[in-house]
Specification:
The complex is a heterodimer. Chain A is mainly α. Chain A contains eleven helices and one strand. Chain B starts with a helix and ends with a helix. In chain B, helix 2 packs parallel to helix 4 and helix 10 packs parallel to helix 12. The mean pLDDT of chain B is about 85. Chain B is mainly alpha-helical.
Chain lengths: ~325, ~650
């Protein structure tokens, strides 16, 4: 094995560990800000960490109807989220494992995790699991084309579908602004809201039977199984926000592996994520959850924005 | 060839002893298919092989075969699927088909394989059309295996009618080409310079119709969802994996590379039909609860994906982008192989389920993962592959299709190129819908509570049926992990085709796929797989703290069981509602109550989707044809004198016309 490959693996492990460590903080932050907007005190910033630690120590309780798939579901979901982090540039203008694949691999990996979690949800025989899985797959099917179109626009303007090369292409071009960026950003932001299960598409705080989507799908999980699911979801959310930051404001990413540049890149990244988190919180606090059958309209808007952005950019 | 025919004959001879007959017929088929694989490999490694089957001295016609690299690729696909399917059939037919019919099925099976092989290898029009017809007829015989059932007879009839409409179009097309070129050999007929102008467009439409029927693309697909489920499962596997590919082969051979440099509009038309087939195919698949019908519609969807790649390639080729064209064609050829592998696997697994439970209806199944763990595992592998998820083989070819579409956008001029990312978005939607569809199929049939005695008592299939499934599953995983090796083989096919050039700086390593100009994109599925393994290991370590406790699922105070679990129909309901303009679902709910309407004794629920194409396209078409035939009845008076008069008029007319020409 060459030195370069070893270095890439080392970086991948570091980046995955970093994302795993910071993802719960993002969740806690959004909860805290939401509470502030509702003039509540809210849970402590680190509550998500406490929860994860508690669940990991507990005894898992599993349905006796369920098969091995039920156990495999959260593990696969966790594995795909962690693997996905290695394909995205976070602090450096290169993804650690960018040699393994680009945008399409990233979307495919995340879809693999969703497939397993949705299948596992059907395994207990509880109607909630089926309901959640059905809705999750429905929304994913509607969000996927909009997501791809948004990513394509960015990829085509940078001349690469590989996220590392894409971000470097954007950086090389310098801080040019194109009006189509606004449309593309708006389109992708809607998709990110949908994919991370936020209001107005889904409500992460609800446990009311008829409104939950993602929560219904993972309702039966407990203990370490639940910890894996929640942690992976948090990582996925951080990952999507990072992706938005990468595509529309790549400035500040470390262009080489020098420690000073990386040390500088981390706070810049953190402030970008903070701004996006504020946006997510504002959207979540000022909107009501949509009826399930209104979600397609939202996704159609996102798809339309993506297509318009592409058309404006290249025609 | 000879092996197939011998096996067919042996099958008929041994008709009275089903067991021996099965072994002889399918053993022969395995041997023959292995030989086909060997031939294909030797052609792909060495060079084209050709020869003569026979000659007719009086007319100076020769019947020959010529295995070009393109034909070899399709032969390879045929052989790779036929070996496991034949092995599976030995076990499957012992249960699914009564002894008396075994001989017929065994013989037709071999004749079909021989005919498809000859379709791929034919070197002249007559041989091709002969093989094409034999292929159609033997398939019809296989579809009609359970001919006691009315719907099966209808399916076989519909298949025959549609196929002959297609063959009619092909015959007309080939006649025009042959008379224009003055020869019957493919080399002359398909040289690409035989006709020009609007004749070329007309011929393209004719051939596209003719081959499109076999390929099962929308709107020519109506026979497919009837015929696939009606046939015994191993035959369905063969039909979906191989027979459909005969149509695709024709599209490649004639429409893309046989009529000269394709027109831009042809490429766009192929892409449009591909996108339509992909998205509608999967939407119809979602609406099904018969597992084999669901798989049949999924076949239509995959034919659409194959056409997307082909169309992108043809468009690029028309505009002179030879490297770009190569990517589209490669994606298309790659998906031909992948679809054959995973759909063959899925049909075989479905066959095991049908054999174990006696029903194709997934709403009567459930919980099969306990009784049939291996079948469940293999079906899951097939489901992951068909959904285009990494690191399985479906991902590899869909990835390449995306590349063709996106690079097409990047390098083509004008408004035309906007259709490429649009097709890309549709492809993304298709694969997400396929995932939903197969979560539904797998979850409903294999997980949670069994919904009846058949599902409770289901037991695993014998090894002779599991081993072939394992083989195909291993191929799905292997091809997915090492796509570069497959692409190299496809490379040798593409060098032989006109108008294509292999992308120069694309690294062709065994693990990697890259479509062209370095830096655009590349993928190493093996690395993705290893990363996933690392992630799984991490998850296992994190969650290994305590042993699990098993309790019944919480039912909110009630008791959960088969009646309360989520059904497949319910699972796809939201998507049915969202796409109601396309699917036009109807439902009927009937509650029978004794005392109060709030406590129904029995609820009957019926749901259906409107067969749009059958009703609005084929309905008027059929009645139009029948009406025209009715009016023509006047001419067919049945009187001998009238017929004699026709002959006289025609003869005199011809004489005048010919005399006038001189």
């Amino acid at each position: 094995m060459t030195e370069g490959a070893l270095a890439a693996i080392g970086l991948a492990v570091l980046q995955a560990a970093g994302m795993l460590a910071l993802a719960p903080l993002l969740r806690g932050l959004i909860k805290k800000m939401k509470a502030a907007l509702q003039t509540r005190q809210g849970p402590p910033l680190l509550q998500v960490y406490y929860d994860l630690a508690k669940w990991l120590r507990k005894e898992p309780v599993r349905s006796d109807t369920a098969s091995w798939l039920y156990v495999a579901g959260p593990r696969m979901y966790f594995a795909t989220s962690v693997a996905a982090t290695t394909l995205v540039p976070v602090w450096m203008a290169a993804a650690p494992l960018e040699a393994a694949g680009g945008v399409l691999a990233l979307v495919g990996i995340l879809a693999l995790g969703r497939f397993f979690l949705a299948t596992a949800a059907l395994d207990t025989g509880s109607p909630f699991g089926g309901m959640g899985a059905s809705r999750e797959m429905t929304i994913a099917a509607l969000a996927e084309p909009a997501l791809m179109l948004g990513l394509f626009t960015a990829a085509l303007s940078a001349g690469s579908l590989n996220l590392g090369a894409l971000v470097r292409g954007l950086l090389d071009r310098g801080a040019t602004f194109h009006p189509s960026d606004i449309l593309a950003l708006a389109g992708l932001f809607i998709v990110v809201i949908a994919e991370t299960g936020r209001v107005p598409v889904d409500n992460p705080a609800t446990h009311l039977e008829l409104t939950m989507i993602h929560e219904a799908m993972v309702l039966e999980y407990s203990g370490p199984d639940l910890a894996l699911v929640e942690w992976a979801s948090a990582v996925k959310e951080l990952l999507y926000l990072t992706l938005l930051a990468d595509l529309f404001a790549p400035i500040g990413l470390a262009t080489s592996a020098s420690p000073e540049l990386i040390l500088l890149a981390v706070p810049i990244w953190a402030s970008k994520i903070f701004l996006l988190a504020v946006a997510v919180t504002l959207v979540e606090s000022t909107n009501a959850k949509l009826r399930l059958f209104r979600v397609p309209d939202l996704m159609a808007v996102s798809l339309g924005l993506g297509f318009l952005a592409l058309a404006i950019r290249f025609l | 060839m000879a092996v197939y025919l011998t096996a067919a004959a042996a099958s008929l001879v041994l008709a009275r002893r089903p067991r021996l007959c099965r072994v002889a017929a399918f053993g022969g088929a395995i041997l023959g298919s292995a030989l086909v694989v060997a031939l294909a490999v030797s052609v792909l490694a060495g060079g084209p092989v050709s020869g003569r089957l026979g000659a007719h001295a009086a007319s100076g016609m020769t019947f020959g075969y010529a295995v070009t690299p393109l034909a070899a690729w399709f032969l390879l696909v045929l052989g790779l699927v036929a070996v496991p399917v034949a092995l599976y059939s030995i076990g499957y037919l012992a249960h699914a088909v009564p002894g008396a019919k075994t001989a017929m099925v065994g013989a037709s099976f071999n004749v079909l394989l021989a005919a498809v092989a000859l379709v791929f290898a034919a070197a002249d029009v007559v041989t091709f059309l002969f093989a094409w017809e034999v292929m159609t007829l033997s398939t019809a015989a296989l579809v009609a295996t359970e001919h006691e059932i009315r719907s099966t007879r209808r399916a076989a009839y519909m298949y025959l009618v549609m196929s002959h409409v297609g063959t009619g179009a092909l015959l007309a097309g080939f006649l025009v080409l042959a008379s224009a070129s003055g020869s019957l050999s493919f080399e002359a007929v398909l040289a690409g310079n035989v006709v020009s102008g609007w004749w070329r467009d007309a011929l393209f439409v004719l051939f596209f119709l003719g081959f499109g029927v076999k390929a099962g693309v929308i709107p020519l697909h109506v026979w497919l969802p009837e015929a696939h489920p009606a046939a015994p499962s191993s035959i369905s596997a063969l039909m979906s994996a191989v027979l459909i590919k005969a149509g695709i082969y024709g599209l490649f051979r004639v429409c893309a590379f046989g009529l000269g440099v394709p027109d831009v509009n042809w490429g766009l038309a192929v892409m449009a039909v591909g996108a339509l087939s992909a998205i509608l195919g999967v939407l119809y698949a979602l609406a099904q609860s018969d597992v084999k019908r669901l798989l049949a519609y999924s076949t239509i969807e995959n034919a659409g994906i194959i056409l997307l790649g082909l169309g992108a390639g043809m468009t690029a080729s028309a505009l002179g982008h030879r490297e770009l064209a190569a990517i589209g064609i490669a994606a298309s050829l790659f998906h031909v192989l992948n679809h054959a592998l995973f759909k063959g696997l899925l049909f075989l697994s479905a066959g095991s389920v049908v054999m174990a439970t006696g029903t194709r209806h997934i709403e009567e199944l459930g919980g099969l993962i306990r009784g049939m763990p291996w079948t469940a595992l293999f079906f899951l592998v097939g489901a992951l592959a068909v959904s285009g998820l990494p690191p399985l083989n479906g991902f590899a070819s869909e990835w390449l299709t995306f590349q063709a579409l996106l690079m097409g956008f990047a390098s083509l001029p004008g408004v035309t190129r906007m259709s490429f990312p649009l097709a890309g978005a549709l492809l993304a939607m298709t694969s997400a819908l396929v995932a939903a569809c197969f979560v539904k199929a797998f979850g409903t049939a294999f997980l949670a509570f069994p919904r009846g005695r058949a599902a409770t008592d289901a037991h695993e299939s014998p090894a002779v049926m599991l081993v072939p499934q394992g083989l195909l599953a291993a191929l799905c995983i292997g091809v997915g992990l090492f796509p570069g090796a497959v692409l190299r083989t496809i490379g040798t096919v593409m060098v032989s085709l006109p108008g294509l050039r292999l992308p120069r700086d694309a690294p062709q390593a065994t693990f990697t796929m890259a479509p062209g100009p370095a830096g655009f994109d590349h993928v190493v599925p093996l690395a993705l797989g290893l990363t996933l393994m690392a992630g799984l290991l991490g998850a296992a370590l994190l969650a290994a703290a305590r042993a699990a406790r098993r309790v019944p699922t919480w039912g909110c105070g009630g008791e959960l069981g088969a009646a309360t679990e989520y059904t497949g129909t319910a699972f796809s309901k939201p998507l049915m509602m969202i796409f109601k303009t396309v699917l036009r679902p109807t439902r009927e709910v009937e509650a029978l109550a004794d005392v109060s309407p709030y406590f129904p004794r029995e609820v009957r629920y019926r749901t259906a989707i409107e067969p749009v194409f059958e009703r609005y396209l084929y309905g008027p078409l059929t009645s139009g044809v029948l009406g025209a035939a009715n009016r023509l009845k006047v001419v067919q008076a049945g009187s001998l004198h009238a017929y004699l008069a026709y002959v006289l008029v025609l003869g005199v007319g011809l004489l005048i016309w010919l005399g006038g020409k001189r």
